[in-house]
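Bench log. Compound arrived from synthesis this morning; before running ITC I wanted a structural hypothesis for how coenzyme A sits in the protein. Inputs:
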Amino acid sequence: MSDEIKKGLLGIVVDETEVSKVMPEINSLTYRGYAAQDLCAKCKFEEVAYLILNGELPNKKQLKNFENQERKERKLSKTLIEDIKKFPKKAHPMDVARTVVSIMGLEDKDTKDNSHKANMLKVMRIFAKTPVALAAFYRSRKGKKIISPKKKLSFSENFFHMCFGKIPQKEIVKAFDVSLILYAEHSFNVSTFTARTITSSLSDIHGAITGAIASLKGPLHGGANEEVMHMINKIKKPENAFKWINNALDKKDVVMGFGHRVYKSGDSRVPTMREYFGKVAKIKKDKKFEKIYDIVEKVMIERKNIHPNVDYPTGPTYHLMGFDTDFFTPIFVISRITGWSAHIIEQYAANKLIRPLASYKGNQHRKVIQLNQR
Ligand SMILES: CC(C)(COP(=O)(O)OP(=O)(O)OC[C@H]1O[C@@H](n2cnc3c(N)ncnc32)[C@H](O)[C@@H]1OP(=O)(O)O)[C@@H](O)C(=O)NCCC(=O)NCCS
């Protein structure tokens, strides 16, 4: 066996998957064989969620059933609503996301049942309830009345309704839907690998998704979309952008929203999300964020040849939609639950305990000296 260490599992293929394929060489990403851009143009998020979970695009009847099931499962237990009201107002919403999924695991009657049938039911509950729980926290921490989900609204419309009490123009809802489609799945990234690793010990789906959320929170992964907004806020205005980014690079800072482990010459999701960022900026009559965006991107490519990843355009887009910055990564969660779940199900179906080796470099065998002699 080779002792060569691949830190960060760089370049290591650990398993097979049928869920998605990232193709950096042709700058493409497919879910179950369909290009993500094509799905953004022709489908709504629920269709893509169905595709990721079931392997095929739904027909009208299948979609209707899926939507009905999702809408039926939106309701939270009274206990969970009471718990959310008691959460510290300053808690990070990603910690809230992690905690509510964990509480759902306490409440779910099928938690112990890891059969495929029970897992699909649990996935639907987590998928339907997590956005409702997050929106409840969005309001309760501001001292606002929690808004109940509405069955007649789509997944995205309902999220706006529960956070803001109103639904924006359909172009804004579409941009949100597109961001959810682009965030839904991305092969063996760190949170998905975490979910699969937890599953590999035959633990349960709530545990796997809880762990995945903790992993997504980090700024090197999903947390980057929040960091992008903090950066844009520090830059303040387009006139500062050129100097700010050059200074950051001179100091050898890591610039959030740029770079990717797999894509080295551009993230295939960025052009679509950039287009929708532009549409939202136009509706909101904003020029500032787009200008800052373009200047920082240009310098990053010219000086470092490092391209933006999808978190770069989603950050300012969610801001323009009115979301608090610390809710950007939780939005990523409500979408990625689909990808994680598909991988968890795939892992159960062909499981092998994930257990890599480490090269030990600590002290060699030592004798224990009794406490009174140390
Ligand atoms: C995503 C990320 C962790 C990928 O990292 P990786 O594959 O391990 O690549 P490395 O971190 O080793 O980067 C390779 C080189 O590019 C530089 N680099 C990569 N991303 C950079 C960034 N965002 N800003 C500045 N420099 C960057 C590194 O400093 C390194 O330079 P060096 O060789 O001179 O040391 C990294 O690009 C990053 O930290 N990006 C910012 C966080 C982010 O946006 N995450 C969301 C990802 S979707």
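What the model suggests: The domain at 224-321 is CATH 1.10.230.10 (Cytochrome p450-Terp; domain 2). Strands lie at 20-23, 28-31, 34-35.
ITC booked for Thursday regardless.
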